[in-house]
Amino acid sequence: MTAGNGSQAEDRPARTGRRPGRSGAREAILRAARARFSEAGFDKTSIRSVAGDAGVDPALVHHYFGTKQELFAAVVQLPMDPEITLRAVDSAPLDRLGEAILRAVLGVWDSPAGAGIVAMVRSIIAGGDTALARSFLLEIVLERVRQRIATPADDGRLRVALVASQMVGLLMTRKIVELEPIPSATIEEVVTAVAPNLQRYLTGEL
Question: Which CATH number fits domain 82-203: 3.40.1390.10, 1.10.357.10, 1.20.120.50, 2.60.40.420?
Answer without folding.
Answer: 1.10.357.10
